Amino acid sequence: MSEATVQEYAGGSVVLYEDLTEIERRFEEVEVNLLRQNYILTRSIFADRAKLVEKIPHFWAIVFEEAPEEIDRFIQPCDTDALNTLQTLHVSRFDISFDVPDVGEPRSVSLTFTFGENSWFEDRVLEKRFWYRLSRTGYTGLVSEPVRIRWKEGKDLTEGLLDESCRLFEIETDIKKFEKHSKQNHGSPEKLNELKASRHTLVEKLEHRLKSTQQDAISFFAWFGYRGRNVSAEESAEVVQNENENRRKHKKGRNGNGSADNVVLDEHEPESASHKVPLVIDSRELDHEIFPDGEELAVAISDDLYPGAVKYFTQAQEKDAVQFSDEEEDEDGASESESESSVASNAPATKKLKTNA
Fold this sequence. Notes:
The chain is about 50% helix and about 10% strand. With about 350 residues, the chain is of the alpha+beta class. Strands 1-2-3-4 form a four-stranded antiparallel β-sheet, with helices on both faces. A hairpin with a 5-residue loop joins strand 3 and strand 4.
C-alpha cells in the first residue's frame, strides 16, 4: 500500500499507524492478563504436583532427558551427570502479588533448581531470576544477573566462563556505585579508573575466549551467567510511563470529536518502546555474553518444560516400556534361534541405556 493510499484511506498515515498499534497493544494486554490469571489459578495445582512428584525418584532428571529440542540442544554430554542429580524445579512469577492480582509483570520469572549431593558443585539450590524490561532503544525482553556456582576443585563445567561473567558483573556494579558516589562527593577518580581498567581487561579476555569457543559446545550451566541487555528498572519504568501517556493522549484525541482525521500526535513526544521506536542494538553488549540464548532457554523451561513436566515424564516412561518390550522380543527370538540350531551363546543380554543427544 502506497503512502498516498494510506493518507487517502485514513486521513493521515500517523493516525492509521497509531490505530493499528493500539489494537496490537490491546491484544498484548489480554495475553499478559491471561498469563497472570493462569499463574494465580494454577498455583495450588503446581503445589500439589510438587508434593506428588517428590515421591518419584529422578522425576526431574527424567523430564530433562526428555526435554524438547529448544532445551536439549543446550545440554552437553558433560552436563548430563550433574543434571541427573536434579531433585526439584520451581518456577515463580515473582512480580505478581496475590493480594493485588491485577498488578505485577507476569513475564518476569525466577527458576529455582534444587540438586542432590554431587561431584561438581557445593550448591544445593541455584536460583536464576529474569526481569521483563523495556528500553528506550526499542528492546523488550528478559534481563538477568549472573549467578555464581561454587564449583568443586577441577569440576567447573563452564571452564571458568561463569566465574568470569560473575566477576565482570561485580566490577560493573562497583563502577556504577563509585560513579554515583564520586558525583555526590567529588572524590578522586583513581579508584574509578582502576575499576574501568579491570573491566577492560576482563572484557577483552572474555571476548577472546568466546570467539575461540563454539557456542554449541558451551555447558548448560553457563546459562546461569546470562545477563541480556543493559536495561535498568528505572529506564523500563520510564518507557512504560511514556507509552501509557501517549496512549492516553491518543485516546483523548479520538474521543474529542470521534474523528480520526483530526487526531495529531506530537512527533517529538516519546514513543512506544515496543511499537514505534526502531530497535537499536549495541552489538558490543553481546560480545561478552557467555550465553546469548539465555532468554530463549528461560522461556522454554518456564513456559513449556515446567508446566508440561508430567507429559514429558510420561513420554519417557512410554519410550522405556516400548524399548523394554522390543528387547524382550529380541531375546525371545534369539532363544528360539539358538534352540533350533543347537548353538549356545556365552554373551549376556544387555539393555540399552537412554542417552542424551
